[in-house]
Amino acid sequence: MNFFEFVFQDWRANQGNIKGRLILVLFRIANFCARRRIYYYLGFLYLLFYRILVEWFFSTEIPWNTKIGRNLRLYHGQALVMTNQVVIGHNCTLRQSTTIGNKQTATGFSTSPVIGNHVDIGSNVCIIGPVTIADYVNIGCGAVVVKSVDPYCVVTGNPGVMRKRKDWQDISLIDEQTKSII
Q1: 63 contacts 112 by C-beta, under 8 angstroms
Q2: pTM of the model as a whole
Q3: Which of 4-8, 137-141, 178-182 has the lowest average pLDDT?
Q4: What residue intervals traverse the membrane (predicted)?
């Protein structure tokens, strides 16, 4: 994947969402610089610019070395906080006021969440600690997720309660639905 494709890999997923497009293009450039040591040193001023613009002005904390798959959809993009150890899969959706981070323990901090592919995260969601969110999961608004989630589930409530989705059992149907989005 060349530089241009890398930077604009989320462009179509955020069609009509100027703020989401801008934040993710700035993130991908910073992520490109952070992943390659020579660019990290050459792009130090850009990384500083990214941190000031995205974190201070857009109120979105996506550290430049976070691992995020392609086609991330970012709705509203404010008050979004995640640690740099979070891993997010392909074709995921994030909404405002969401926290994805690790948990403080007596011996330090836990590992950060790992989020699978095709995960839709509602607003005001907290995903905390060493949890794994499997593929094709919907997390409802205001949910607090502190346990791992199975595939094809909906999570709602505080603490998050898993409910199986009966209408998503056919994987071919899911793939056709997601292809129409992309």
Answers
A1: no
A2: 0.85
A3: 178-182
A4: 38-58
